[in-house]
């Protein structure tokens, strides 16, 4: 199981696990640094994509960027693709998928 432990509690949690004879390993030393790096990478990728008008499917993107790409695909290929709302997130935000099908236009 993965557990997120605040840095101020790390030694206490490690001591407790050790006292109980439980093995553990730290997989990410500094989660905030990792998140900051991913955010920088996303911003860099989005800047490059805007400058050469392409979308890097192998890179991290914000949800807004993903939804923009879905809209672009659906707009470019309306006979094959449509953006479909599949529900709401826990935060009550709409969630979408890109439906690819010859009947996409008929069912949208």
TrEMBL record:
Its cofactor is Zn(2+). One of its GO terms (biological process) is proteolysis. SUPFAM superfamilies: Protease propeptides/inhibitors, Zn-dependent exopeptidases. Residues 59-108 form the Peptidase M14 domain. It comes from the Eukaryota. Signal peptide: none annotated. Keywords: Carboxypeptidase, Disulfide bond, Hydrolase, Metal-binding, Metalloprotease, Protease, Signal, Zinc. Belongs to the peptidase M14 family. This is Carboxypeptidase A4-like.
